[in-house]
Every structure is written in C-alpha cells, then in structure tokens.
From TrEMBL:
Organism domain of life: Eukaryota
Pfam name, any one: Xan_ur_permease
Any one GO cellular component localisation term in the record: plasma membrane
InterPro entries: NCS2, Xan_ur_permease
Organism this protein belongs to: Perca fluviatilis (European perch)
Residues that span the membrane, as ranges: 43-62, 93-111, 132-155, 194-212, 282-304, 310-329, 341-359, 374-394
Name this protein carries in UniProt: Solute carrier family 23 member 1-like
Lineage: Eukaryota, Metazoa, Chordata, Craniata, Vertebrata
Amino acid sequence: MAMLSMPEWTCPAWTQNASLVNTSSTDFIEVWQSRMRALQGSIMVGSLFQVFVGFSGLIGLFMRFIGPLTIAPTIALIGLSLFDSAGTSAGNHWGISSMTTALIILFSQYLRHISVPFPTYSKEKKLHTSRVYIFQILPVLLGITLSWLICYILTVSNVLPTEPDRYGYLARTDLKGDIVSQAPWFSFPYPGQWGMPTVSLAGVVGILAGVISSMIESVGDYHACARLSGAPPPPKHAINRGIGIEGLGCLLAGAWGTGNGTTSYSENVGALGITKVGSRMVIVASGVLMVVMGVFGKVGAIFTTIPSPVVGGMFMVMFGVISAAGVSNLQYADMNSSRNIFIFGFSMFSGLVIPNWIFKNPTAISTGVAEVDQVLQVLLTTSMFVGGFFGFILDNTIPGSKHERGILAWNKAHEDDCSNTLESGEVYNLPFGISSYLSSSSWLRYIPFCPPGESSSLDGCTADTNALEPKQPLGHPEPSQIIIGVAM
C-alpha cells in the first residue's frame, strides 16, 4: 500500500495515450510489467530483513517483555480493524450474507455434535457406514458452498437484478464469467517471468514498513492460533522460525513475481477457531491444492465467481472469532485494576482512532522525507501495530506487579497447557524427526530458531513424538487435541 500511494504509481490517463486502452498493446503491457518488476525487487530486498530478524532470534528477545496486555489488543484489533471490509462485502446483499452467516453458525455451533453416516470400505468390515462429524469439520466450507449454490440458482433464474446499479447485482455468480473463459488451462509461473526485478530505495523502505507491521501481526496470529486450537503458546524458537520462514516465503514470492509477500492470514486463524481443525496435514493438503489451482488456471478462476455477499457473511463470523480470541487473553490479568483497564482501553481505542484518522487525512504526514512519510503512513494505518505498540509501552513502563499484569498467570497457563493438553515439543519441534536427530548436539542451544534438547525444552515440556495423532474418533476432534503448524 505504501508503494501504491506514491505519485509515480498513479495509473496514467488513457487519454494521453490511446494505446493504453488496448490491454494487449505493447504500451499497456509495459506499464504494468514495469511496476511488477519494481514490486518484485522491493519485496525480495525487504524480505531479507524479515529473514534476518527471524533466524537471528531478535523477535524472540522481545517476547520476554510481551504479556496479556500486549497480546490482547494486538489480536483483537486484527478482527476489529477489518469490520469495514466485512460490512462492505456483506452490504452488497444483506439477505445472502445473513444466510451465509446463519449457515456457518448453524453448522459450527448447533450441529457440531451431530454425526452423519458415510459409506466406507475396509478389508475387515468390507462395505459399511461410518459416522463422521462433518458439521464440525467443514462448517465454513458447507456454508459457503450452499450460499454459492443458491446464488447460482438465483442468477440463472434471473431473480437477482441484471442492472449494475441495482441493489443485489453483486450477488450474481456470472459477474466474472469472462475471467473463467479467458483463464488459460495451464499456467506455469517461473522466476523472472515479468523481466529482471528492479530495486528502488523508496520501494524498499515502503515494503520494510509493511514487513514490520506483518511481523507484529504474525506474532499475534501465532498466539491466537495456539489459543483457538488448544495448543501450548508458541515458544521463542517457534516464533523465530515462523518469522524467518515467512521471510523466505516472501523472498520466493517476490522472485516468482506474485506482486505480494506471504504471511499468516487472520481469516485462516478465524477458520481454525470455527472448525476446530488445526492439523498440519490440513495445511499441507491446502498448499498442494493451491499449487494445483495455480497451475490449472480454470480451477482457480472458478473461485473468483463466489459473490462478495457470501464472502462478507463469512467475514462477519471469522473476524468476530479473532477479536474474541484476543480479548480472552485478559483472563490472565487483573481486570479489577484501574491500571490494566486504562492500558487495554487506551490501546484498543488508539488502534481504532489513529488509523481511521490517517486514512481520512492521507496527506497529514509530511516530514519532508518521502521515505519516512511512507514508513509512518504504513505503521500508523496498521491497527495491530498502533494498539500493540501502546499496549507494549504502557504495560512495561507503568508500575505494576507481575500478578497484576497477568505475567504470573500467563506463565502458569503456559505450564498448564504443556501438561494438560499438548506438549510444547510435540507441537513446535522440527518435523520428520529432525529434532530427535539433533537433540544430542550441544551447539543446538545456540541456534535461536531450533528447539532445545528434550531435556531442556521450554516451559518444562518434554517431547512426546508418539502422541501426534488425535485421540478422538475421526471427524470429532477436541480443541485440546489439535496440533497446529505455526512454524513448520
């Protein structure tokens, strides 16, 4: 967003060059490809900073100063800051969006303990039926699919208006039919497909501001993810590794010319809270699915036909769950304390007021240095940064005991989570037995993104590599038995 706000990124007027009207003309192609190359180079350079911060352990060093009064506003503002986009999408047709919301609530809350018989086959029992808690596993997917199908029926029957200026037009499923028809059957992206990436100081500084905000949001996402799935809070080595891997993902994304980086996604955290499914194999399968969608252009294009009211209805549920997960961290702090009430209230309100004012007054920040303006613009329009920053500063500077701040209860909860749910090593160790192989190495403790040896694992937790599988029947996982993959 910082780069897009710069004057040189303003779209040229087509009246100055008639060839820009033709999307297949050489001039038009060069306009957008030159910007893609500049964006590529900036993302690749900016991602190196994130890789350094993560793998060097700098982000983990700050975790000792972070408590409930820092995490709570940061996570809560992830959801609250997106209320406008949720309302905009849902407001395109409140009937469709309300139906989507109602279906997700029905499946995820009221029908979650109802099992559905499915035909299965095994060598022992041959063909038989097994009961699967399908509503608990796929409530969001079922809600979106049913709403999508209903919108399609209303579209082909012309119940929804065909005039673009009429209310409800955006609920039609044929608005992006040309995208499906024009999408290639096969598309193989490769590094440098738009040409050699270019680098500019202004672009790199703008991306760095976004990277800093992204890292702050990711730390909040990691804790929200662990909280919603019943896993232990992520230890420092897992957070270091997660931030570092996100940086590598941004580096690869920039090289392949996607035009954006990769980071933890708040909507996915909300989906985890609704579905109660946090298996890392689900993440792996989702990654394979996205690769397939990227290679087979028609498949990915089909998903663009999902009407925006359906997406808005889903957002209302997802963002609400994320906000509630953030506020739930206050249970560790003494909320009868006027100190804590002030810190949380001021952090939350500042995280809403300041970004809103900056959005309405984009030219208010003028230091005389364009790069500084871009950095401040990005940081001050990121609600999670503003709220988390004030929560961090106030909680660490205003006098208060560890009990009052919630630090003691926070640390005790970490230990309880490790003993009563999943063990820290079980969730956050390196995959494929790498941690066990390296556990005898004395130098491992000096690598900030590697888990410590089994005898000295964080929070008093020990690894139990035999407890990776959920103990409930298929399709009926409990939050206390869900394994997450924050930093695979």
